[in-house]
Specification:
Layout lengths: L10 H6 L2 H7 L1 E5 L5 E5 L5 H11 L3 E5 L1 H14 L10 E4 L9 E2 L3 H5 L4 H15 L3 E7 L2 E8 L2 E8 L2 H14 L11 E9 L6 E12 L2 E10 L1 H4 L13 H11 L4 E6 L6 H12 L6 E5 L9 E5 L8 H9 L5 E4 L5 H12 L3 E6 L6 H8 L4 H7 E13 L16 E12 L2 H8 L4 H10 L5 H11 L4 H8 L3
Parallel strand pairs: 2-3, 12-16, 12-17, 13-14, 13-15, 15-16
Antiparallel strand pairs: 1-2, 4-5, 4-9, 6-7, 6-11, 7-8, 9-10, 10-11, 17-18
Helix pairs in contact: 6-7, 11-12, 12-14
Length: 483
């Protein structure tokens, strides 16, 4: 007997299995008149996906494999059910300074899944990254094409394969056009940025992206950093509590953020949430009678009543030059996105010593490593410890998915994890510690002095997280192996 024809797609199907899920999993749910369901997929779906569909449908489903049929139905779905897709509306893309490349249309991910070329494919990847809350998109070339992975909660997750080197090359070229880079230059690394304006029913929002292109053996690899400011621009905003800081520690950070002057530093490896913590502390302690000026590369979040300055190295606006100008702008508080060089460090220290409260981040593994970084830059030890009030060393630890307890479900895309929380140690300097630091006391003596004060280390914070049960020993070991 011939196979029973597939049913048509209806509104009820999209209500049960939204288009965003269909595109992400390359599987479309179709329901028959008798209430049974068929999962139309391009390739055999995993057990977890089938279980998720059955939970939504509340009964078993059949699986039908047909890549061409799926592509055609997704394209039809884009045309006929566009309003059902959250985020499927056109988006404008342009360089952050508003000039140069003009406006590009970001099309729906349904057409990207239907294989409509590199432009539509990239649109789908960017859309999915925003939907998944990814921080980075990695396009990694090899002899057969490229692998696309996204970083979610600090861990790289495979997304899809590009089956031909040509498609990978076209995808990277499209990114370079959007970021106004030289598409003819394939032998040298290039960095750029672009912005998408996402039109939504609530009025839309802007999302910034940073692009890094690197020549490799098999072509050009690309990494796109997603800088979605919606977390602070909309909703309840960013607070130390939402980042996972314990109430007592959060209050100590707020007290430091209200000091009249001094240098407050947040340290940790790349991706440990340093800038986000600085923003949360500033947002919670801003006063209407103060002036806050920030200089960043780039401006990652918007703060009401703050003067925010983006670094532009190409036009000569570096952190050091910008900070020098900021201090002539009569600020009460200053935030420097990152201290990268001796000149910026020296200006920040001088600003803290002359009556300003300076917030910044620096790359170091431990709180006690910060002074070593400054001395390595050639700064005077007395000045550094005289300006420095406190150092917050932090890491971001993944949280078990509350819906499944860590086994994997639809809510966490099968990973077992959903979101991250900060663990941290706060080093507050006093006169005795300053004397020990200036005297270059051995690390063992410094740790002994901190222990005598009941200092809570980063490892102590990690053990407390384990005791509370919201993460695992393996996850803690992954992010705190260097402490």
């Amino acid at each position: 007997m011939p196979a029973e024809p597939l049913p048509a797609l209806g509104d009820a199907d999209l209500a049960t299995w939204p288009l965003a899920l269909a595109v992400r999993h390359r599987a479309l749910l179709l329901r028959r008149a008798d209430g049974t369901g068929t999962l139309l997929a391009a390739e055999p779906p995993g057990v977890l996906l089938v279980q998720a569909v059955q939970l939504r449908l509340r009964q078993p489903v059949l699986v039908h494999l047909d890549a061409i049929e799926l592509a055609e139905r997704l394209a039809a779905c884009e045309r006929g059910f566009r309003a059902a897709e959250d985020g499927g509306e056109p988006v404008d893309a342009q360089a952050p300074d508003g000039g140069g490349s003009g406006v590009h249309e970001l099309s729906s991910p349904a057409l990207a899944a239907a294989g409509a070329g590199a432009v539509r494919l990239l649109d789908g990847l960017l859309h999915d990254a925003l939907q998944d809350g990814a921080s980075d998109i990695h396009i990694e070339c090899d002899a057969r094409g490229a692998a696309v992975r996204v970083r979610i909660d600090g861990v790289l997750v495979p997304r899809r394969r590009l089956d031909t080197p040509l498609l990978a090359e076209q995808l990277v070229s499209r990114l370079k056009v959007m970021a106004e880079l030289d598409i003819g230059e394939r032998r040298l690394p290039q960095d750029g940025r672009f912005r998408l304006r996402l039109a939504t029913s609530s009025g839309g929002r802007e999302v910034d992206f940073r692009l890094s292109v690197m020549p490799t053996l098999h072509g050009e690899d690309a990494v796109v950093r997603v800088l979605d400011r919606a977390a602070l621009d909309h909703g309840d905003g960013l607070t130390l509590a939402t980042l996972g800081f314990q109430p007592a520690l959060a209050e100590r950070i707020r007290q430091l953020a209200r000091l009249p002057h001094g240098l407050l530093l947040v340290t940790g490896p790349t991706g440990s949430g340093k800038t986000t913590t600085l923003y949360a502390a500033l947002a919670e302690t801003m006063r209407p009678d103060e002036k806050l000026v920030t200089i960043e590369d780039p401006v990652e979040y918007r703060l009401a009543s703050a003067v925010q300055i983006p670094v532009n190295e190409k036009k000569g606006l570096s952190f050091a030059r910008g900070l020098r100008s900021v201090l002539r702008h009569d600020p009460d508080r200053v935030m420097v996105g990152e201290i990268r060089d001796a000149e910026t460090a020296q200006i920040a220290v001088q600003a803290a010593l002359t009556g300003h409260l300076v917030f910044s981040s620096v790359h170091a593994n431990h709180a006690l490593d910060v002074l070593g970084r400054f001395l390595h830059m050639g700064l005077d030890a007395w000045q550094v410890v005289g300006a420095l009030e406190a150092v917050l060393a932090q890491r971001l630890v993944r949280v078990r998915c509350a819906a499944c307890g860590g086994t994997g479900c639809l809510a966490c895309a099968g990973t077992g994890w959903r979101g991250r929380r900060a663990i941290a140690e706060l080093l507050r300097l006093d006169d005795e510690l300053r004397d020990l630091l200036v005297a270059r006391a051995p690390l063992l003596r410094l740790k002994q002095a901190l222990a005598e004060r009941g200092h809570r280390t980063l490892r102590d914070a990690a053990q407390a997280a384990l005791a509370e049960g919201w993460t695992t020993a393996e996850e803690v070991a992954r992010v705190t192996a260097d402490v």
